[in-house]
Write a structure and sequence with these properties.
9-stranded mixed β-sheet, Spore Coat Polysaccharide Biosynthesis Protein SpsA, Chain A, globular
């Protein structure tokens, strides 16, 4: 098929989640600028036959389901991008819903500034009370930059080598950072994508964040040297505080020493976690545009607890990633 300079192929990787197909098509049918084709790259796992059937039943513009062996999102997107016939590729995830003017606005921005990549902005949608708590403890009502909803010139995407294929998460940011270094890039300021895939319970939350934190550790994203140094400085400070009474009283534990502070370790950690809980439950959500009326009088406690849980679950992966980053940095 002949390419059109303004044609857009939408590429959507699918590994389960067939329940989200119909709502996504409803959103695509409302687009003020319809895509030239929609490519579903469906991994042969779980309910893939149901997903394939639902895709083929849609009465829409050119639809192509591509069935592959189980693959991570990056690998699936690469396959879809190579198969696309349009000059522009737009990426979506199965749990994302675009605004009605998504493609029209993104392409207008691209043409206005002759950009090669326009990244999207996303906001989480919450339906249940648990979702609202989880939303408040993560991104809040802030719109955040993301890959789903972004559009890129196909030729330049292929020249970039595409996404890393051996990681489950983080490949999107790794590619955006790599692509933006050599090509003309801008972030769309309007909210164009709504995410509908928040975990439904504590168990799903723990599983998702634990797995994703370790997957993110495989690529150099979310890591800055200053955070490593800050973490190291805090560790040294905590150890020094723990040893303070030994330092001021000598090797013999002397509670009569002038600078001896009883129960210092308990006091320090109690104060630390108290203020940390306040930050996670009130201050951070407010900075993320969560209404104070939602947090008070008691929701902030649950928001703080969820925030603490998420940080604890992510900690092993973050530490692992920091260690890998530091090792690779010093080996250069």
């Amino acid at each position: 098929m002949k390419k059109n300079s303004c044609s857009i192929s939408v590429v959507i990787p699918l590994l389960g989640g067939s329940a989200y197909i119909s709502p996504l098509f409803d959103a695509l049918k409302k687009q003020t600028l319809r895509p030239s084709e929609i490519i579903f790259v469906i991994s042969r796992v779980g309910d893939w036959r149901t997903a394939k059937k639902l895709v083929e039943q849609q009465n829409f513009t050119s639809i192509r389901p591509i069935i592959i062996e189980p693959a991570f999102p990056g690998a699936a997107r690469n396959i879809g991008a190579k198969e696309a016939y349009s000059n522009w590729i737009a990426f979506l995830d199965i749990r994302t819903l675009p605004a009605h003017n998504w493609l029209e606005n993104m392409l207008a921005t691209a043409n206005k500034g002759s950009y090669d990549l326009i990244s999207s902005k996303m906001i989480c949608s919450a339906k249940t009370f648990f979702h609202h708590l989880l939303q408040a403890s993560t991104y809040g009502n802030n719109a955040v930059e993301c890959l789903p909803g972004s559009i890129v010139k196909k030729s330049l995407f292929l020249d970039s080598g595409g996404f890393l294929e051996n990681v489950r998460a983080g490949e999107d940011w790794e590619w955006i950072n790599r692509f933006a270094q050599k090509n003309k890039f801008i972030q769309q300021e309007e909210i164009v994508i709504f995410y509908h895939g928040l975990p439904n319970n504590i168990f799903q939350l723990i599983k998702k964040w634990f797995i994703y934190s370790f997957e993110n550790s495989k690529v150099n994203i979310l890591l800055k040297e200053k955070f490593s140094y800050m973490g190291l400085a805090f560790f040294i400070f905590a150890i020094l505080l723990y040893r303070w009474n030994h330092i001021v009283s000598g090797e013999v534990w002397n509670e009569d020493a002038l600078l001896f502070i009883p129960n210092l370790n308990k006091i320090f950690w109690s104060v630390f976690f108290f203020f940390y809980f306040l930050y996670r439950g009130i201050f951070k959500p407010i900075s993320d545009k969560v209404a104070l009326s939602f947090l008070l009088p008691f929701s902030w406690i649950f928001v703080g607890a969820l925030g603490l849980l998420i940080d604890l679950v992510k900690a092993p992966g973050r530490v692992h990633g920091s260690v890998k980053y530091l090792i690779s940095h010093f080996q250069k």
